[in-house]
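User: Need the bound-state model for adenosine-5'-triphosphate:
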Amino acid sequence: MTAISASKPIAVLGGTFDPVHAGHLRTALALQQQAGFSRVHLVPCADPYHKARTCAAADLRLRMLQVAVAAEPCLLADPRDIIRGGATYTVDTLRSLRQEIPQGVHISWVIGDDAAREMHHWHDWQGIFALANVLVVARPGVPAPDLQHWPATWCADQQDYLASPCGLARRVELTQLDISSTEIRQLIAAGHSARYLTPDGVLDIIAEHHLYERSST
Ligand code: ATP
Ligand code: MG
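Assistant: Bound-state model below.
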């Protein structure tokens, strides 16, 4: 087993994960395999104030994520937002991580193009850059957003980027899988199979708990 160093760059992918899918998972794995991160925390939100509602309860969204990453030691299903409860604010998530990770160590908050476009509406969003860097990942079917107003220094080189503990931003193209949780929920609500879009263990939990069988998106 590879030892995971506490001083190497860390990536954090937050989301609703309702349910987690291959787009999230391949992105997370590519961060470790290709982009220089030692580990990737996948952090399901407790109570997404910016989304109308989630379809599956927080404990089930977390369980699906745990099953999905069980075979990959570099991917962590991180329950901190669900344990904290209430409205999830990314700045609180990063503050909590910073209490465990030395100040000089690089943290990247990872965000897809679609969510990046909305980030300036988030609670204390500018505080995010004082705690971490922000890595925008291209998402197929979503035009690249204009993020020049962000209070960050845009970094052209991945090694320079990884050397900084916080305050930088960068946009990269990793995996390009046009998969969304919405699509999976819609397939299941229509009585179709979502196989191969998410791991079989996730599909087992969906079936066991009759998740997404009624359309709500
Ligand atoms: P929903 O359809 O319910 O919004 P989703 O597929 O967008 O679900 P989220 O949990 O909302 O998944 O996304 C969490 C994070 O992962 C966001 O930053 C989002 O942009 C990113 N993301 C989701 N799917 C992909 C994908 N296929 N490729 C790259 N990034 C993705
Ligand atoms: Mg989404």
